[in-house]
Design goal:
Three copies of one chain form a homotrimer. Chain A has 181 residues and is of the alpha+beta class. In chain A, the strands form two sheets. In chain A, strands 1, 2, 3, 4, 5, 8 and 9 form a seven-stranded mixed beta sheet that branches. Chain A has a two-stranded antiparallel ribbon with strand order 6-7. In chain A, strand 8 and strand 9 form a beta hairpin. In chain A, helix 3 runs antiparallel to helix 4. Chain A is globular. The N and C termini of chain A lie close together (5 Å). In chain A, 47% of the residues are buried. The N terminus of chain A is likely disordered. The interface between A and B is large, with 48 and 52 residues.
């Protein structure tokens, strides 16, 4: 919480630069669901560092390197998920910016349209069988500034299911509150 | 990704202005769910341009002109949806700002409380039958700066259901990644 | 909507300060779900003012004072909710900043993993029984700047269920649209 003091040592330009960094990072995170739901390998190739890591835990496939991560979006499995109407939905991320590095902590829902079940009518909003929330995951994005913009060095996600790994990620957003002021 | 170069040509004031634009746009998007869920025609009348267009696709009603769009919020159908507890829930939007224009791409969930089914108890959080996710839609907001603030020129939304139109909207958020660096 | 005029009276430093305030507030709101889902009393103790109020309405417990609010996160009930996999999921908040005060309006979903029911397989995304959306609530956060950062003076939340109290909170986000231009 020593933000105020820190500001005294920075020029206005440096402060504006840090703000622009924050906004660029918001857009980087906001670009992920559209890329996942359209299979945009070109996004993953630019957004991840050459040696970037995508880690979904023990039960789902991951990849290392921006090209391998991008290739996953073109896999038969992922393309089938897209054809089924998968939607990635991100909440407001927490951003901890530290110069040329940043840690982003975010929640993400993965939704799919229900294929069976009763349709419900909502006035002025049509009829729908609704959506299934398939996964709710905690994400940790480790970012680095490069000459061509902010890049993902490592994205780690874990299912929020009452087990410890997702809580470990979430605590990462609260580091500033754990430190002495 | 030519952001860094672009900055060199801008004054600090211009950079701050662009940041303020971004934040004003976040608030414009964040104001939509409260307006939809309270039937706030006064929001729609100010937020949309005089010739603004609201396009929900072939199966749901749209409108042209800020007054007509506002009037929809007072329709019997929409008022019934509000009485039933409709909730619009927006994720983190992607903002592509280009001077006096901006393209915003966002996901939106439309939820309603379940009227039947088993109630579930969650410790310290009461009992609930839960909510139905009625629609998950991709939104494209085409905005323009006016002397009285940023206005919606066109809002286009399409259901995320595995069909092409929502993906076309989502790809709009990734345009910067498609361009040569 | 007199933002443009207002800016004329502010120095660039004042404008940058207001932007930093906005971004600090986004992080304060984004820090809440991780704190709720990990039981981080240390977050609540710093984020709430000494005399802060947490008001969940008539049917759920609230608390007054940052230490009492923090203690709730360590209660048996809340710890059981965490063990069950509770996830707080926040959308994009609306921020109305006014000098050393701010009103934030946000939607929040409270989710828990389904303990029964059919598991669904989504290609490339594993198998899951899905999540139950237990509550969708409208939140009003009344914030104040202090020498040690922005603090929550009062957080009021009400269930979105078609009744008036949540709509009253949501209308708070639209105050700028109700005022004469």
């Amino acid at each position: 919480m020593s933000r105020e003091v820190m500001q005294d040592n920075r020029t206005l330009e440096q402060r504006v630069r840090a703000i622009e960094d924050r906004l660029e990072i918001y857009n980087l995170i906001a670009g992920h669901p559209p890329s996942a739901d359209t299979g945009a390998d070109y996004y993953a190739e630019i957004a991840y560092a050459d040696d970037g890591v995508f880690d979904r835990g023990a039960n789902l496939s991951g990849a290392t390197g921006n090209k391998a991560i991008a290739a996953q979006l073109k896999s038969d499995g992922h393309q089938a998920a897209i054809a089924g109407g998968i939607a990635h939905f991100t909440g407001l991320p927490h951003i901890a910016l530290d110069g040329d590095r940043a840690i982003v902590t975010s929640y993400l829902q993965i939704l799919t349209p229900n294929k069976s079940g009763e349709a419900i009518e909502v006035p002025n909003h049509g009829s729908s069988r609704g959506y299934h929330i398939h996964r709710v995951v905690a994400n940790r994005w480790e970012l680095a500034r490069t000459p061509s913009g902010w890049k993902i060095k490592r994205r780690t996600l874990r299912l929020v299911d009452g087990s410890e790994p997702s809580r470990e990620i979430l605590r990462g957003a609260l580091a500033a509150y754990q430190q002495p002021a």
